[in-house]
Structures are given as C-alpha cells and as structure tokens.
Amino acid sequence: MKCAYYAIGDVHGEAERLRALHDAILNDIAAHGWAAEIVHLGDYVDRGPDSRGVIAAVMALQATAAHCVRALRGNHEQMMLDAYDRFDNADMHWMMNGGAFAAESYGWREARGGDWRACIDKDHVAWLRGLPTLHCDDARKIAFVHAGIDPKTFPACSEEIRIWTRSQKFFDPGRWPARPELDGWLVVHGHTPTNDFRPQIVGGDARQPRRINVDTGAVFGGALTCVVLAPDAAPRFLAA
Known about the structure:
It contains seven helices and ten strands. By secondary structure, it is α/β, with parallel strands linked by helices.
C-alpha cells in the first residue's frame, strides 16, 4: 500500500514547535485514515533553545507512534559527533556554529567550564551515530535527504554531499544530467533556508516536482515546516 509521507525540515533546537508540528501531523494522519511515514530531515541540534528536547521528542515519537518514524542525519549532527569524538578544532567549529546552545540545553555552562561531553545523554549520542543520510521510496521515486544529492552520481553520492551540498547544479533540476537513475525522481531536503521563509517547489509538475526544500528558517524567525506527500496528490504543507 502506498503511504503518505510527512517530511519535516530543519528544527535547530525548536522543541516546542516540533512537538506542536508532531501533533498537527498525527491529527492530519488520523483525519485521513491513511498509512503514513514521518521523516525528519536532520539538523535537530544547535542555535535554538532546546536541542536536547528536540532529540527527546523524535526518539519518543519513534517509540510510541503507530506509524513509521524516520530520522536522517544533518550536518549539525555530524559536527556535534565530530566534536564529541575529537579534541581539536572540530570542538571549536561546532561551538561557533550553534553548538554552545546545544551543549547548554544538556546542562553545560560555559562560564563553569568543564567537559561538555559529560553532560550529553549517552543514548542521544548512540541515536545520533545510527542516523542514516538518505531514505528512498524507489516505487514512487522520492528521495529524502538533509542537504541534497549529486545529480551526476545519485544514488551513490557520498554522505558528505548528502549532508552539506549547496551546489547550484543540484538546486536547478534543469541542469541535472539526463541519467536514467534520475528520471522522474523528487528530492525532498532542507539545509538551505529559503529566502522568504516559505517552502520551495522546483521543476516537474504539480503532482511530482523535482525538488522540494522545507527548510523555512525555523530558528531564524520562519515557521517549522512539513511537506505532505500523499499518493496521487499535489504536495501540501503543515507548519508550526
């Protein structure tokens, strides 16, 4: 049976809004009575007020929801893991990119000093390590990823591309090469906030565009956005 997908963009510590969006999604699923999968596209941590609460909310939904709940790894999760594992510039790089706010949500205080790693829930670290960087529905030709793909090598593009790319060759589906591996595919992603804080639909037709960006800058004043991809229907959006 084909299912409806609910794909959530970059959260960045906005735990209260994520919980509200989860409620809206579950209500929407119940109203339609269809099979569904909820896909989080990454960047749960950093910059916002409650990274710990975001991870806890996703893990709780995975444990309790009657529907499949997926979570992908974003570049900010990768930076956090790199900082956690290494005692070099990775630590400072993460802190300067919002990591200090994430560490503080776990109870660390910069003014007190000490190793922030001791504050992080070990089960959260294990959960982050297990996150994949790509989920595909081969039958419907939908790829879910944090940042994007390399149109020249998809689906074999590297994890670095999947969590970091901002290539203009990806952003413009008109520049994608004529490869059978790309025929009819839609890529759903976040990572790059839209300029107008609205979700972006690019290429293709109303029912199957080529690219949808749901990073609407939740931590910068925009909404936290979810795209709903129901079978044989045009994309629509929920927000909190």
